[in-house]
Every structure is written in C-alpha cells, then in structure tokens.
Amino acid sequence: MFKLKTKTGSNNITGERLTALRHQRNISQRELARKMQLAGFDVDHHFIRRIENGERFVTDIELVALSRVLEVSITDLIDASIPITD
C-alpha cells in the first residue's frame, strides 16, 4: 500500500508543531498524554513521542483531540510548509 510521507520521510506534518506547542506550555509528553486521558482520549506518552518524531501517521480525529486539549486551532498543529512526496 502506498503511504504519503514528507520528503524527509516523516509520517506527518504535525510533529514539529506539536513539540513546539508543548514546549511553549512547558509540559512533558507524559503530561500531555495525561491531559488527553483526562479529556477522555485513550493515549499514552508513546503516542505523543511517535507523532513528534514523525514515526506515526495522525488521523483527523487525533488532530481534533490534540487541538482541544492544547486549546489551539487545528491549523496551529499543521505545518503546511513541509514538502510532501509527489
């Protein structure tokens, strides 16, 4: 099956923005996962790490969950300037 990736091989265009937003709020990956769990989303810190490292694809549902917990818009989580493969 063909999967879209960035030109650098990342599986998402959200990881870098997620890391930056998390650092701005001075919270760890574990803390973010805990906040998501409290909001009713079944994730752990590995979920956050894998997104931030570009190892994991991110679904639209996950984008909504992250944006709600971080209190940002979905577009704040997407870096559209990252080139994807053709």
Describe this structure in words.
- With 86 residues, this protein is mainly α.
- The chain is built from 4 helices and no strands.
- The radius of gyration is 13 Å and the shape is globular.
- The mean pLDDT is 92.
Summarize the structure.
This protein is mainly α.
Return residue spans where pLDDT drops below 50 for at least 5 consecutive residues: none
What CATH architecture do you see? Orthogonal Bundle
CATH structural class: Mainly Alpha
How would you describe the shape?
A: globular
End-to-end separation in angstroms reads 15 Å
How many DSSP-defined strands?
0
Return the structural class: mainly alpha
> What proportion of the residues is helical, as a percent range?
40-55%
H/E element order:
HHHH
Tell me the number of structural domains: 1
Biggest sheet character: none
Bin the strand percentage.
under 5%
Looking at CATH, the homologous superfamily is lambda repressor-like DNA-binding domains
Mean pLDDT: 92
Radius of gyration: 13 Å
Number of helices: 4
CATH topology: 434 Repressor (Amino-terminal Domain)
